[in-house]
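Why do we care about 3D structure at all? Because function follows from shape, and shape follows, mostly, from sequence. That is the central idea of this module. The next example makes it concrete: a single protein chain, its amino acid sequence, and then its structure expressed as tokens.
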Amino acid sequence: MAEGKSVDAGHFVGLGLGLASTLLGFYGLANTKPLPPSARLGQLASLDLNNDGRLSPDEWAKAGRTPAAMAAMDTNHDGFIEPKEARRPARGRGH
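And the structure:
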């Protein structure tokens, strides 16, 4: 250390708290769980009963939705509503 300068206990406490905070942050990041595939469906996620990340005609019907509404959202015509289709505004809504 330079002559005439001293380190007080407050510096060590600050360093200790900073290190503890960093370690707890890393621990928290390491223990996060990924979102289920259905989360990518946005507001329609609750309709995805099997959590596969897409809506089947059966899941759509169980939610009381019409086949015509599903057909309007199913832009790739594969019979399922996928995340990219769920996030796209439906045709005819003025969006």
